[in-house]
Amino acid sequence: MSRRRRAMLMLLAAAGAGLLAMSLVGGYSSSVADSYGELRQVVVLTRGLASGQVISPETAAGSFELRQVPARFVPVAGLANPGQAIGLEVVAPLPAGSYLTASGLRPPGSRKRKKPSPGRGRHAVEISVAGAGALTGSGQVDVLVTTDNEKGGGSTKVAARGVPLIAVGRSGQSEVGPGLTEVTLGLTRSQAIRLVDAETFARRITVLPPAGS
Question: What are the pLDDT digits (tens) for 197-211?
């Protein structure tokens, strides 16, 4: 057999092997697709994004990639269109390779909540109180002061009614005493003086939602 003929036979054999390999790969791909179900388009990050980063068209063009992924692996909130993310802010750091989801984005500045105002003519004052465990840090409260009397008992009086409750600290975390909670109230000057003074001599200062609330 001539050298030329041997070369032709080798080329034909290589071509046949290539066609067989392509057929096997195609069959394998079809088998995988059949096993995992239909494919779905989803946005995948090619670069990491930082928390608080606002997605611009440039960010989308340089950090996003569209891929076809089996639907069973795509998050429910996975985005299929990069344009849906433009103008939104990243909630938490997203590493490269992550799916881009609607739950991982929010309108810019939405996490910045406006702090409650003490109200006109009032001042934000921190007081250590009892009875704050069920409060949510908003609304109004009545402030009660319990003092000891000469007979060894105690008496309770309302020191302030319907004052704005601005913030509530962690229950039992006040440095003044065990079981007390530090709250921030919107008090007038006279109320503030009275309650700050009461912290030094009163048996207990308590806050309660106003009657009927």
Answer: 888 888 888 888 766
